[in-house]
Amino acid sequence: MRSALLKLFRNRKFSNYYLGSFAVLFVAAFFAKPLFGQATGEAAHATGGHAAFKYFSLFSDPKYTPLEIYSLLAVLFVAVLGLLYALMLAKQVKAADQGTKRMQDIAAAVREGADAYMTAQRGKIIPLIAIITMVLYFTTQSEESAFKLGRAGAFLVGSFFSWLVGFVGMRLATMGNLRVAAAARSSYGEAMQLGYRTGTVTGMLTDGLGLLGGTLIFIAYGEQAYEALLGFGFGGTLLALFMRVGGGIYTKAADVGADLVGKIEKNIPEDDPRNAATIADNVGDNVGDCAGMAADIFESYEVTIVAAMILGLASFGHKGVIFPLLVRGIGVLGSIISTYTVKAGPNDNSDSALKSVHNGFWIGSIISVVGFIALGISYLKFDAAYLALNPMAKAGFPNGDPTQLPVWATFGIANADMRPVITCFIGVVLAIALNKVTSYFTHTTHAPVKSLAKACQTGHATNIIQGFAVGYESTVATVVVIAGAILLSYLCYMGTPPLFVAYGVAMTGIGMLTLTGNTISMDVFGPVADNANGIGEMGYDPEEMEKNEKGSYKRARQILSDLDAVGNTTKAETKGIAIGSAVIAAVSLFASFIAVIAVGSEDKISQMTTEQYLAEAGKLTVAHPMVFIGFLLGGAVPFLFSSMLIRAVGRAAFLIVKECRIQFRDAAIWAGTKKPDYGRVVDICTKTAQKELVGPAFLAILTPIAVGFLLGTQALGGFLAGMILTGQLLAVFMANAGGAWDNAKKFIEDGNYGGKGSEAHKAAVTGDTVGDPLKDTAGPAVNPLIKVMNMVSLITLGVVMKYTVIDDKLPTQSRVIGLLVGLICLVVIGWAVWQSKRESKELQEMEKQFES
Amino acid sequence: MKPYLYLSLIPESLIASHLSPEEFGSYLSVGSQKRSRGQAMYFKLTDAYAEATLKKLGMDANLGRTVGEPPRRSAYLNIYRVLEQTPLEALESIHLTTDDGRVLTLKPSAYQQDLAPRFHLYQEFCPVSPRIVSTLEPKAFAQEITDSTKAISLPALVFTELKLEAMAEDPEAKAQNLPYTSIEHMRDCMRELKAKPSKKMKTVVRNLHSDLLYRTLRGGFYVATTGNGFRYFPMPSREELESTFYPWWRSALSSFGG
Questions:
Q1: pLDDT digits over A735-788, tens only?
Q2: In chain B, what residues touch A539 (CB-CB under 8 Å)?
Q3: What is the DSSP string of A313-379?
Q4: CA distance B240 to A775
Q5: pLDDT tens-digit profile of A803-836?
């Protein structure tokens, strides 16, 4: 019987159907339960001890004014509007010219590869998501089934939305790249607009789904949305980690593998159709830069709104929750208007195109800031009636009186509190500042990249040394900018309890990601333009084009090359925002973490007093050995995680090299008369990326659990602090050093220090090769790592507090359970680390070949 | 099987083969097993000359192959003083092969002298292969180097001109996009030529150390023989390279791990 069941569950087809049905049922239950099931107040009192819970209670709660309810519905409408705008743009992109049969064949190969990757990843992730959903359901501290369902169901919805954003983004990108390549044959403006709009579809999908999820949860759960919000954030974060890690390994393994055989061994150009890894390389751009980045930003978008809503509720009451949702609604409108203004003329170049993209960002920023102010003036009023209903909000004002706020915080309006508006504005400025810092350290027009190019004249080593120096320096600049933003938020709320300060920081994150639509448009535009360039390279027929119109081939190639350059710049700029948002979200969530410890359980967070919070926050000092131990361990995890990812890229690349070498031995492929089997390399990349993401994912999920159970909550607090600090420094270092090395190479290729083929160029190529896995695999993956570890810590905190090994006040039985869980986590982490260091069979074979 | 006769420049050698110029270039660059790579430059000699030479050497069109055997890829016929023994009119075309076996064919054309005073950088290929900086334009340089009345001269020479950009006018100018090693030494050589107008040329590098970067070629290839023999094989224009010959040009640009 057991073996028959096992056999049945191991059957892939059955398990897929089974798990798929399970997921659908769960989502259906999540949405349907509020409509049919209403928990009674008595039941809640009897079981959980907290206030009577009713779904959609805000519609009947006198605390909420009709205007607030209409505003929330308006936010829902705006979220749907964003999705409709995305749909409209997707249709525009789809309707565009698709070029020649040859171009379509190449694009189809890329699309098929990308789809295969997503399908394989889905197969791997669904079981894990199903297990985590169950765990979340059964480990929810509250006995109230609505909260259990809320946390588990929202987790499922969050992960589904995150996956959807990545999947649709990647699908659109694989559709848009062909259209961009086709449009480049006739017009610069059309090609640029198509590329940007392809990115905007993903951007608006992120905006729309993120806002829709957060708003729906709040409408359904009202002031008791904490569990569901956490679940929603965790779902998005976990999927983003998978997409980022898997995509990062895929993209770099394919890229490095293609380069190792193509450029270095065979000395053939990039995107040469004879190279079997070419299509995989292009697929990698999509799964890494589109799916990975889109899911990553979606996750930041979710987590910042979750953090702001949780903290808003705990500090300023329901206005503190509704305001961030309204701000996001304004941001979506700003993105719709501003992304539509991004256009280029038929004869524009990369400079004017870049200017148009930046203008779009500025227009969006101005719309948003004006909208924030208008919203603040009309909504953020805290009169005596409101404070009577939400007494905890009084602590946010001098002497509990909003009229005593200084003029800068009220704009001279009675009872108004414009501090959330100001912190949002700080967030917008922070996004722009981070763009500028990233641009300064990675763009060819600035001193750091020029210094690297100069260092290339004296050889490989000096380039690497200078790259390290630039990368390290850039972390300081980024930290100063982020710390400056947090400081300004703190100054806005100086004199109030830390929870209010944390709310200010969370609102900075909300402001920072206001223009997510624009940010993702800029980011996705990069791989779309890159892919379009590849399709032009492989799919254009120079003779035919020249026959039809003299000079058309060269013009089209130039347009694609210019677009690629613009895409590289915009993509690099958005990396700063991704990292910054991770830090801001993590800092905000850290306040929630302290709050949960202070009250002893997450379902009592709304009952917390300021004194409780301050007492618990005061214990988190590095003078405490457990906190310090946690701090050290947390600081080390991002390094181990990065090491695992970089090794994974190396292993995967070796497999690709092996396959490409085999195919190159076919004389017909080498002569260009036979098409290589691209699918085999795509398969290798897909399987390897899936396999390799398991270890880092275990590390991310299980390490905080192990620390929590074995060393306690204070060590876990230290762990998170250490991890946030080193994680963000490492992420910035890797992204900026890699970007600087990449652009130093480009700077030399543009005809400086001897240009292409010179000794300086060879040194620059080495730097770029070193920087590649840093900037495209490990660096970006640290962002979701930071957030996953925070979310895991928050979600498991309630259980951890009950089973901590070192807490001698707990019963022995509980401590033994904690010990067992901790040890199991350690064993799995140990296995993951061992797996990351193993040499694959193929690698050993290759070594033998070298020896012989 | 039709036999072809090729004059390879690196190393100087006379080779008979059944491979067409494109196939031969690919073979020279990457070998038959595709396990090696390297740049190649060679002349295809006229069919008439090939037939006469093979006959003189007592070889038939099969180049030693019997029926059913694969075509002969290369049969080395001579590796010493080949160029000087080959008549100028037998040089039908020159073929430039990139590291990955892409072949560009250059046909001879009439040469128009450019007498504007400037520096020229020449890369010689065979029989010797130094890199020379000179104030002489290509034809004058060819005559000078093959002038048998001079103490130092060559019976024949294949060479090309390399780009100097702004340095052609001014040795002190910036060398932004010139990938040459020992740029400073080259400047010294140019300064010396400028200071002593009677001196027409100066050796910058004694030997060709590495592959030639095709992007640095200026004008084309020249063949000079004693008695004012001169033949010019022009490179296509940049526009033609970027459109008609794009696969070759891209390969040429992407060499060296770029």
A1: 999 989 988 998 998 889 988 888 899 899 889 888 988 988 899 899 889 989
A2: none
A3: HHHTTHHHHHHHHHHHHHHHHHHHHHHHT----TT--HHHHHHHHHHHHHHHHHHHHHHHHHHHHHH
A4: 37
A5: 999 988 899 999 999 999 999 999 999 999 998 8
Q: Which residue of B has its CA nearest to A258?
A: B257
Mean pLDDT, chain A, integer: 86
Contact A567, A527 (CB under 8 A): yes
Helices (H), A665-677: 667-671
Q: What is the side-by-side strand order in the sheet with B103-106? A: B75-78, B13-17, B4-8, B40-45, B91-97, B103-106
Residues of B in Cβ contact (< 8 Å) with A542: 243-244, 246
Measured between CB atoms, does B213 come within 8 Å of chain A?
A: yes
Angle at A602 between CA A598 and CA A604, to 5 degrees: 75
Distance between CA A288 and CA A245 in Å, rounded? Answer: 8
Instruction: Tell me the nearest-neighbour CA distance from A770 into chain B, angstroms.
Output: 14
Contacts of B258 in chain A (CB under 8 A): 263, 749, 756-757, 761, 765
What amino acid is encoded at A432 in this protein? I
Question: Residue B96, SS3?
Answer: strand
Q: How far apart are CA A115 and CA A39, in angstroms?
A: 43
| 8 A C-beta contact, residue B255 and residue B213 | yes
Mean pLDDT calculated for residue range A629-637:
97
User: Mind telling me how many Å the CA of A561 is from chain B's nearest CA?
Assistant: 13
- Helix, coil or strand: residue A377: helix
Q: Amino acid identity, residue A619?
A: K
Q: Is the pLDDT of residue A54 over 50?
A: yes
This prediction has a pTM of: 0.82
pLDDT digits (tens, 9 = 90+) for A302-353: 888 888 888 888 888 889 989 999 999 999 999 999 999 998 887 777 778 8
SS3 assignment, position A68: helix
pLDDT value at residue A35: 45
Nearest CB to A554 within list B98, B175, B242:
B242
Q: How many residues does chain B have?
A: 258
The CA distance from B254 to A756, in Å, is 8
Cis, peptide link before residue B11, omega less than 30° from 0: yes
Dihedral angle of Cα A825, A828, A834, A837, to the nearest 10 degrees: -90
Q: Name the residue facing A762 among B216, B243, B256 (closest C-beta).
A: B256
Report the candidate in A213, A748, A222 with the shortest Cα–Cα distance to residue A452. A748
The candidate with the shortest Cα–Cα distance to B110, out of B226, B231, B228, B222, is B231
Element (H, E) at B162: strand B156-162
Task: Tell me which residues of chain B, numbers 228 to 247, contact chain A at a CB-CB cutoff of 8 Å.
Answer: 239, 242-244, 246
Query: In one letter, which amino acid is A488?
Result: L
Map residue B228 onto helix, strand or coil. coil
List helix spans (H) across A222-317: 226-258, 278-284, 293-315
Which residues from chain B sit within 8 angstroms of residue A667, using beta carbons? 34
At residue A225, φ and ψ (nearest 5 deg) are -85, 0
Q: Yes or no: say if A182 and A552 are a contact pair by the CB < 8 Å rule.
A: no
CA dist., res. A614 & res. A742, Å (int): 47
The pLDDT, as a whole number, for residue A21 is 58
> ipTM above 0.85?
no
Element (H, E) at B223: strand B217-225
Position A610 pLDDT exceeds 80: no
Q: What is the pLDDT of residue A77?
A: 95
Residue B123's beta-bridge partner residues? Answer: B131, B160
- Give the integer Cα–Cα distance in Å for A173 and B69: 52
Are B132 and B161 in contact, with CB atoms under 8 Å apart?
no
CB nearest B239 (choices: A537, A554, A754): A554
Residue percentage of chain B with pLDDT more than 70: 96
User: Does the pLDDT at position B160 exceed 80?
Assistant: yes
CB proximity under 8 Å: B 66-125 to A: 98-101
